[in-house]
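Task: sequence in, structure out. Protein: Helix-turn-helix.
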Amino acid sequence: HLAEKYGVKGTLSREEFDARAKAWYYAELLRDERKRQKMTQQELAELIGKKREYISALEQGHTDMQLSTFVLIANALGLRFSLVVG
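Result:
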């Protein structure tokens, strides 16, 4: 079904879909952890030097998250992660 709707794996349209899906997934993880810690979007924004509206847009999938922003948010939430390349 994915191939019919988003293209065959390896095509540009499928790669774009996969990238959006992964971005949404990681934004959800960060949002869930923020909420688990009972931290507001405003508090998180202040910790990382961004505006609350930016945090909201990230969590809703309205903007792409740069790796540097992901690291800032993860650190602010006290999370550890590993990056595997290859």
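The CA atoms of residues 27 and 59 lie 5 Å apart.
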